[in-house]
């Protein structure tokens, strides 16, 4: 007699499966649990820790993106036979790895999984029949018990036994049971040609072996999905079981993330995310292939965002090397852009699978349906939680990226500030990588590398177009400190040589004039708002004073035929930077009919700016307190000036 469910008569193919496992259904209830998935995920993490982080990510990434949609499913199903595809591939691809350690890890996983399975089965009151050696007899006895009649061994049962045990298959050609219809035809008296890949009987053989000889819960679940996928057409419109398996694979990655140690979960969150995206987004695989090199560095950033939000994520992203930062950002941007949409699609698919498929499976094949129902209820609850986490990641990522950029800019800014104070430091750019770094006189790196194009983007905020390229800006930053020292000394000597009243303050004067120059050229904006450093402002002032002194010396030379004072000597790099700055200043001065910028500054601010007048009142009184650094002070040189009329020939004094 046949089972009858609320969905009607059970088809013969489902009837056979029910009869075959009758009396032993509790095995599936014991095995198909979320707790077992968590345990096995933890064991897989431990086993695969035998290979490097990069190797693990690369191999999983390749299976997801390069090796076809079902490579991950195959990887999990192979665990049933004790084979870990990731570890086996690692031995071939990464020859420098410790092969012995990898083999030992695989053996330990295999042993632990089988022992756990054995212990679970030992707790059950199983049918006393010998499954592994007499499945045909077991079926015969079970059929007799269920019908009350003696059931003779039939050719079909012999064929079933052969399929399930790998025994001799009938020689006569017949129908291969690859579909529900063919399976039913075999049950009705057709001939079965033996176990074939993808057949229901073939899946039963694998499942039988998995339950009695090996121990991977994850693999068993995939086999169960294979079986219900083959007979799924009985339930009406087809549900893409392969896609359900892809979702399950992604969820297993998330479970592995949840069971991983602190600092080791990011790679599994990332792998699960790209697994979902590759399954649901057309063409995503091709895009992801290009981003694979960034996966290892992206993983800890993703973990940081998931655990600590945008602030923690920004700090983690800022630690990524500048060379890798761009690709890492692109990969995480790709995930954050797509993950919310695929989570919705995956959730909808699971809902359809649960409501339209599992419910019928419970009625027609209860030994599979009931435990699978409980399992997918747990999966659904966990998936909702993981989905909330990933949706949070998608929302936080942009802020994390912005925070990382700000942190990086601040680090570079600090490095530049140090450079501007130290004449022994320099900023160099690699012609090949286009990366910049600050080094000391011995070549020791002071700050981590950063993209050279940052220099122009940043400097253009101060004075757009002043320097044409990054190398010119690097030369500028590298020469500010030394040029300030040389120019301050020369300007001081000039003032002393002129015999002007000695008071302290040429360094402060340079800073003051530099502020006015920046304010004039930038329509009243303050130097700090534009991002200038104090040393840069002094450089503007020193450059303008040196330019004015050169002009004065030139005029005196024309008048007398002799040079009154020695010129301020700069080396070639310093001179190149000086020429750029003073040309920039003096071209602006020409708009006001002046040859240099200093008289323009006085005419603009001398009679209107209280700060300007107050400063020079202090100069006249000789009460200006020097705040100059030691590098501006030279033995025998008094940094002094006298009245403003000695400095600005066009003064209105």
Please outline what is shown here.
This protein is mainly α and 653 residues long. It has helices spanning 12-20, 26-31, 34-48, 53-65, 71-78, 85-93, 99-122, 135-147, 155-165, 180-187, 200-212, 217-230, 241-258, 266-280, 284-291, 295-318, 322-364, 366-421, 453-463, 470-497, 506-521, 527-530, 534-560, 572-590, 597-605, 610-621, 644-647, and strands at residues 4-5, 8-9, 426-429, 435-439, 450-451.
Describe this structure in words.
The chain has 653 residues and is mainly alpha-helical. It has two domains: 10-132 and 213-402, no CATH class; 470-647, no CATH class. Helix content is 67%, strand content 2%. The chain has 27 helices and five strands. Strand 3 and strand 4 form a beta hairpin. Helix 6 packs antiparallel against helix 7 (99-122) and helix 12 packs antiparallel against helix 13. The radius of gyration is 39 Å and the shape is elongated. The chain starts with a strand and ends in a 6-residue tail after the last helix.
Overall 3D form = elongated
Low-confidence stretches: 1-8, 127-198, 499-504, 622-653
How many helix segments? 27
- pLDDT averaged over residues: 75
Q: How large is the share of residues in beta strands?
A: under 5%
When the domains are counted, the total is 2
Q: Helical percent range?
A: 55-70%
Report strand order across the widest sheet.
Answer: 3-4-5
Largest sheet: 3 strands, antiparallel
Intertermini distance = 121 Å
Radius of gyration: 39 Å
Structural class: mainly alpha
Number of strands: 5
């Amino acid at each position: 007699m046949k089972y009858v469910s609320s969905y009607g008569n059970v088809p013969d193919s489902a009837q056979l499966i029910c009869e075959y496992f009758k009396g032993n259904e509790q095995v599936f209830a014991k095995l198909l649990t979320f707790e077992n998935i968590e345990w096995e995920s933890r064991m897989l993490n431990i086993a695969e820790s035998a290979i490097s982080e990069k190797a693990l990510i690369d191999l999983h990434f390749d299976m997801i993106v390069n090796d076809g949609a079902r490579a991950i499913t195959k990887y999990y199903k192979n665990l049933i036979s004790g084979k870990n595809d990731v570890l086996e591939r690692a031995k071939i691809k990464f020859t420098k790895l410790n092969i012995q350690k990898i083999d030992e890890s695989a053996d330990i996983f295999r042993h632990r999984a089988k022992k756990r399975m054995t212990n679970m089965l030992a707790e059950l009151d199983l049918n006393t029949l010998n499954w592994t050696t007499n499945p045909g007899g077991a079926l015969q006895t079970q059929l007799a018990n269920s019908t009350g009649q003696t059931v003779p061994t039939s050719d079909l049962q012999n064929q079933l036994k052969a399929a399930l045990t790998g025994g001799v298959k009938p020689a006569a050609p017949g129908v291969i049971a690859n579909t529900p219809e063919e399976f039913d035809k075999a049950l009705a008296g057709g001939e079965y040609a033996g176990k074939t890949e993808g057949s229901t009987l073939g899946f039963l053989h694998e499942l039988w072996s998995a339950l009695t000889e090996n121990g991977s819960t994850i693999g068993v679940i995939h086999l169960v999905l294979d079986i219900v996928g083959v007979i799924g057409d009985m339930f009406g419109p087809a549900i893409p079981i392969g896609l359900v398996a892809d979702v399950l694979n992604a969820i297993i990655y998330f479970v592995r993330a949840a069971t991983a140690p602190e600092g080791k979960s990011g790679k599994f969150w990332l792998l699960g995310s790209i697994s979902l995206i590759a399954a649901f987004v057309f063409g995503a695989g091709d895009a992801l292939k290009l981003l694979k090199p960034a996966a290892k560095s992206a993983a800890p950033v993703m973990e940081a965002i998931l655990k600590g939000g945008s602030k923690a994520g920004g700090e983690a992203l800022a630690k990524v090397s500048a060379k890798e930062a761009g690709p890492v950002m692109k990969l995480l941007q790709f995930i954050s852009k797509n993950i919310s949409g695929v989570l919705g699609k995956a959730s909808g698919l699971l809902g359809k699978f649960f409501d339209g498929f599992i419910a019928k499976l419970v009625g027609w094949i209860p030994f599979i349906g009931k435990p699978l129902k409980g399992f997918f209820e747990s999966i659904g609850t966990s998936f909702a939680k993981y989905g909330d986490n990933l949706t949070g990641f998608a929302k936080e990522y942009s802020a994390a990226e912005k925070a990382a950029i700000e942190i990086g800019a601040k680090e570079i800014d600090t490095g530049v500030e140090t450079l501007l104070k130290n004449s022994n430091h320099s900023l160099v750019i690699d012609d090949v990588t286009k990366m910049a770094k600050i080094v000391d006189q011995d070549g020791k790196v002071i700050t981590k590398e950063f993209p050279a194009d940052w220099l122009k983007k940043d400097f253009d905020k101060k004075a757009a177009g002043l320097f044409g390229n990054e190398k010119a800006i690097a030369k500028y930053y590298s020469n500010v400190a030394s040029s300030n020292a040389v120019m301050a000394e020369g300007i001081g000597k000039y003032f002393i040589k002129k015999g002007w009243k000695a008071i302290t303050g040429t360094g402060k004067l340079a800073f003051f004039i530099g502020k006015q120059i920046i304010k004039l050229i930038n329509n009243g904006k303050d130097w700090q708002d534009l991002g200038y450093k104090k040393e840069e402002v002094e450089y503007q002032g020193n450059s303008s004073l040196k330019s004015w002194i050169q002009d004065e010396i030139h005029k005196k030379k024309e008048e007398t035929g002799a040079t009154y004072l020695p010129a301020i000597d700069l080396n070639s790099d310093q001179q190149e930077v000086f020429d750029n700055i003073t040309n920039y200043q003096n071209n602006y001065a020409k708009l006001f009919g002046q040859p240099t910028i200093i008289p323009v500054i006085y005419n603009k601010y001398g009679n209107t700016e209280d700060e300007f007048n107050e400063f020079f009142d202090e100069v006249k009184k000789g009460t200006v307190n020097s705040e100059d650094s030691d590098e501006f002070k030279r033995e025998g040189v008094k940094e002094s000036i006298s009245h403003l009329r000695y400095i600005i020939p066009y003064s209105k004094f």
